[in-house]
Specification:
Elements lengths: L1 E3 L4 E5 L3 H6 L3 H5 L4 E6 L7 H9 L6 E5 L5 H10 L14 H4 L4 H14 L3 H4 L4 H22 L6 H13 L3 E2 L2 H8 L3 H13 L3 E4 L15 E4 L2 H7 L5 H5 L4 H17 L4 E5 L5 E8 L2 E7 L9 H9 L4 E6 L5 E4 L2 E5 L3 H7 L3
Parallel strand pairs: 2-3, 3-4, 10-11, 11-13
Antiparallel strand pairs: 1-2, 5-7, 6-7, 8-9, 9-10, 12-13
Helix pairs in contact: 6-12, 8-9, 10-11, 14-16
Amino acid sequence: MVATSESDATLFDLESAVDQRRLSVPEQALAPLAGLVIIDEIQRSPSLFETLRVLLDRPGQTGRFLLLGSASPTLVRSASETLAGRVGIVDLAGFHLGEVGYPDSASASTVWRSLWQRGGFPRSYLAPDDSASVLWRQSFVRTFLERDIPQLGISIPAETLRRFWTMVAHYHGEIWNASEFARAMGATQPVARRYLDILAGAHMVRVLPPWYENLKKRQVKAPKIYVRDTGLLHELLGLPSSAALAGHPKVGASFEGFAIEQLIACANLRSTYFWSTHGGAELDLLMIAGGKRYGFEFKYADAPGTTRSMRIAMQDLNLTHLWVVYPGDEAYDLDERISVLPVVDLPTVASTLGV
């Protein structure tokens, strides 16, 4: 346990044997504390939620608790049920474009490409060089599979889940096909879906739901799957450098996933979907904000233009505006309600959505 008088905060790290012993009788350890009490790696002791509920309901309680740790659907559900009305849950992703910043326009391209290549985990992004970043990501993948997943109460061999996660990386940006994954894994479709739910619940994979409505068109009703952190995506695909990424068939899908995560993180919206018809029309991302619909297409191209698919999406989905996000530097209009947008300007668009 570490206490600092300067910040009036007390920290418990449940990976520390000393702190575990101090919290072996949690009510006696926590009740006298005032100010901010931080409990890190809370997934190691979910039984603490019951004690916290008692303390928070006690008259005169002056302590406030910040609980940190790896998330799982079971852990989040337990916290929500035990501490109902007493807890707020914040999902923390890695760095995004609104946080890393760049001192001038000349450095903007270098910054976002580094974030794209290395991903948003602080120790990966801030590593002194690419080799150190790759080494950290390799260690993270192994530790996540061999230590973090078992700590969440999930008993799946690490190598099995790694093979599945690598398959997701190769299908990054594509429609989820349970039967195809099941065949490749030698498992049933429910088992394949369970593996996907585990990685999605741990915030390693994004399952982007489809949008469909009565349009008298056959629409895709299966979700798309993405590895949320592109640094981990590149590690799973064996792409240690920007040069290796540039020549890989998944470079466009990687850019798409990166831009989607940046936009969702900056906009802080939950109403996000993709849209696709069996006739070939599609929209990479549909966001609903303030009762209006906004569309986004992501093109890894020098100078993207309009397509028939975009115009169909504008009409069928009644979009207020559609942005075509690309890796270039200049913004320009393609139509009255269709604009081309540099990826570095995504945080600005998020603010225009009023979120």
